[in-house]
Amino acid sequence: MPHGPVVDWVESKYKRLYHKKPRDTWRSIRNLHETGFLIKVQKGIYRYDPDAVNRKELEDFTPEQKEIILKRDGYKCVICGRGKSEGVELHVDHIKPKYLGGKSTIENGQTLCAQHNFIKKTLKQTETGKKMFIRLYELAKSEGNEKLKNFCAEILESYERHNINSHIAWKR
Q1: Is residue 32 within 8 Å of 99, Cβ to Cβ?
Q2: pLDDT of res. 138
Q3: Quick one: 79 and 114 in the same domain?
Q4: Domains held by the chain: number
Q5: How confident is the model over 104-161, as pLDDT tens digits?
Q6: Residues spanned by the domain of 129
Q7: Is the pLDDT confidence value at 5 over 70?
């Protein structure tokens, strides 16, 4: 089905349910995907499968699980180290997202600040990491920090060896 009618349909259903137009239709569509109501076919293309909705186990972390994860991670974002003491909003996040089959287990949980949770949702876990190491590599290179540059290069080469996120390029 072409783009226009799909957006119109989503907007009409949303308006019927909430008595207002969605602020961002594409965000609403992505949210339907993340909650298991739509299957992503490719970038920007989703389909509805009623059987998939019934198969999904999209439970959230329990309050007890959240507390265990927050405590384990020191009440700090595992990426930047900022936490409650700095007034940062913390989220308990699924490492492997629910819509990709990730379960709400303590092992699959991590503490992220709101900023890094948003970045991870946009870029995915491995893409976030690769982009972070590319930036760190470039910084180490510009500062002449050979030890850090070599460390980042090894990690980035590991991405290449395992063909992970090959669409994100980096230059030695």
Answers
A1: no
A2: 95
A3: yes
A4: 3
A5: 999 999 999 999 998 888 778 888 899 999 999 999 999 999 999 999 999 999 999 9
A6: 125-161
A7: yes
Residue 38 DSSP symbol: S
Helix (H) / strand (E) element for 20: namely none
Please compute the mean of the pLDDT values over residues 72-93 and round it to a whole number: 94
Task: Check whether residue 37 and residue 84 sit in a common domain.
Answer: no
Q: At what angle do helices 114-123 and 125-143 cross, to 10 degrees?
A: 110
Alpha carbon 74 to chain centroid, angstroms: 21
Considering the domain architecture, whether residues 109 and 156 belong to the same structural domain is answered as no
- Tokens representing residue 48 in the block: 């509805």
Buried b (16+ CB within 10 A) or exposed e, 148-169: ebeebbebbeebeeeeebeeee
In whole angstroms, give the CA distance from residue 84 to residue 148.
29
pLDDT 10s digits, 47-62: 776 665 555 445 689 9
Residue 161's identity, in one-letter code, is: R
Q: For residue 92, which phi and psi values (nearest 5 degrees)?
A: -95, 120
Which residues have C-beta within 8 Å of that of residue 145, sequence separation ≥ 6?
139
Q: Do 48 and 70 contact (CB within 8 A), yes or no? A: no
pLDDT by residue (tens digit) across 97-108? 887 778 899 999
